[in-house]
Design brief:
- It contains ten helices and 13 strands.
- It has an eight-stranded parallel beta barrel with strand order 1-2-3-4-5-6-8-13, surrounded by six helices. It has a three-stranded antiparallel β-sheet with strand order 7-11-10, covered by helices on one side. It has a two-stranded parallel ribbon with strand order 9-12.
- Strand 2, helix 2 and strand 3 form a beta-alpha-beta unit.
- Helix 3 crosses helix 4 and helix 5 packs parallel to helix 6.
- The longest helix is centred in the middle third of the chain and has 19 residues.
């Protein structure tokens, strides 16, 4: 059994071929798709965060809106770039969104990915401290955020406050108990997966990873997941961690599916460079008739290791078509693989 969610990057473009031609379109359609995904029995609605791009950015208004419109589905991110985040303000926003949803927030964070602009986090007012690079800064912000989510008081109260304070040091409000255990780290390497496990975060691994062994993506990710579990056990955590894998998977059911994805699908992993020094492997897409798709997916070792599968969706094709994509996976593929 697996939890299955969708992952939207929230693209929009004014092109007449796009069903999402503005930021308003993407935001409102994201809410509608989460409602429809819940009706279809999907387990999660997840959203990517990119700054300086025609894509979803500040996630908490959207997460709060989805939480208010739904009742059961998990809502989350994959991922928030922590180089851009104020951990204190983020803890307040996350607490509020989680309370609105009734404790359904599953928040994926990371140190970030290649950007639209050079050092975009500098425009948000952040700088690495001495001895840090930008990735170190993102991980530092993450650790500060995790500490705040513990809910311990740390701020000295004013002796003459406007409103009566509870005794002792004050914490940030609103506080949502349990959210600390629902933070995920988006990891691109074995080392950061082990670091996330040590800190007690769940693991998200995407459709790309640093190429550390030259093997296929799914094999490298399976090894990464096993390294994460070993580090989790060594850290002595008592709860069972969650682990997600993201994939592009399309069941070719009708002529629309075949027209969109039936030709020229990416059936092999690709190698690229995230910067001049970082070689990465980008995972293949799966697009085939259900019986073929089932056999292909049986061989994906990382999916087998994970408890949660996030399906990347073509959000610009609109709510109705993406609901069809989701339903096809849930009804024609997932049961045959034992995911349902």
């Amino acid at each position: 059994m697996k939890k299955i969610g969708f992952l939207s990057f929230g693209h929009w473009t004014p092109s007449p071929q796009s069903q999402a031609r503005s930021a308003a379109d993407v935001l409102l359609q994201s809410i509608d798709l989460a409602v429809e995904a819940e009706r279809l029995g999907m387990d999660g609605a997840y959203f990517r965060v990119h700054h300086f791009a025609q894509q979803l950015a500040s996630p908490f208004p959207l997460l709060a809106a989805v939480g208010a419109k739904t009742r059961k589905i998990e809502i989350g991110t994959a991922v928030i770039d922590m180089r851009y985040e104020n951990p204190h303000y983020m803890a307040e926003d996350a607490g509020a969104a989680d309370l609105i949803s009734g404790g359904r927030l599953q928040l994926g964070i990371s140190r970030g990915s290649p950007e639209q602009v050079i050092d975009g986090w500098r425009y948000f007012g952040y700088r690495p401290i001495e001895g840090e690079d930008h990735a170190d800064m993102g991980r530092r912000h993450a650790e500060e955020f995790l500490e705040l989510l513990r809910g311990k008081g740390f701020a000295q109260p004013n002796p003459r406050p406007m409103f009566t304070n509870p005794p002792g040091l004050l914490r940030l409000e609103p506080y949502s108990a349990g959210l600390r255990d629902r933070i995920w780290w988006g990891s691109a390497s074995n080392a950061t997966a082990a670091w996330a496990a040590k800190l007690g975060m769940n693991l998200q691994t995407s459709t790309l990873k640093f190429d550390e062994t030259g093997e296929s993506l799914h094999i490298q990710q399976a090894a990464q997941i096993r390294a994460f579990r070993a580090a989790w056990k060594e850290a002595g955590h008592t709860r069972t961690p969650r682990i997600s894998v993201s994939r592009s998977i399309f069941a070719l059911i009708d002529d629309h599916d075949r027209g969109y994805f039936g030709r020229g699908s990416q059936e092999e992993d690709k190698i690229g460079f995230l910067d001049e020094n970082t070689r990465a492997i980008f995972g293949r897409s799966y697009a085939a008739e259900p019986d073929i798709l089932i056999e292909q997916l049986r061989k994906d070792e990382a999916i087998a290791e994970a408890d949660t599968l996030l399906l990347t969706i073509p959000n610009q094709l609109g709510v109705s078509y993406n609901a069809h994509v989701i339903e096809a996976i849930l009804t024609t593929v997932a049961p045959a693989l034992g995911w349902r």
